[in-house]
Request: fold
Amino acid sequence: MKKSFIVLSVLLVCMFFTSTAALAQTNIKVEKFSPLPSSTGNLINYIDGTITQVDINLVAFEAITDTNTTVDTLTQTIYLQKLSGSSWITVETYPETKYNVSFISYNNSAYVTKGDTYRLKVISKATAGVTDTREAYSDPIKIQ
Reply:
């Protein structure tokens, strides 16, 4: 009885890892590293993040914005976008603001539709006497 329980447990663990191994993951890539036209300074070092399919209808994501100094205000807005034809449509928005910090990190999960393609768009804005606004996009991820 104990042996069959162990065999069954190992089999279930193997099935879990085999079924989740095929799920997709993509990292953020910075599309516009130079500040956006609205920027008046250079405060943001980088934007980093990831979006990962963790279940049939579920993605988990995280984004981090790092600055080269402590800033008065740091806002990071994550947009979960879905490909519709040739356009990206924002389906969820996740804003986060911190004060007197040098980085911001946010993670969450969202339900998605199997067969659709999603990406993250991240816009970060730092202010400390000047303003630096940047945006980054993840590679697309097709939900399997």
Summary: The first helix runs from residue 2 to 21. Residues 2-21 have pLDDT under 50 and may be disordered. The radius of gyration is 19 Å. The chain has one helix and seven strands.
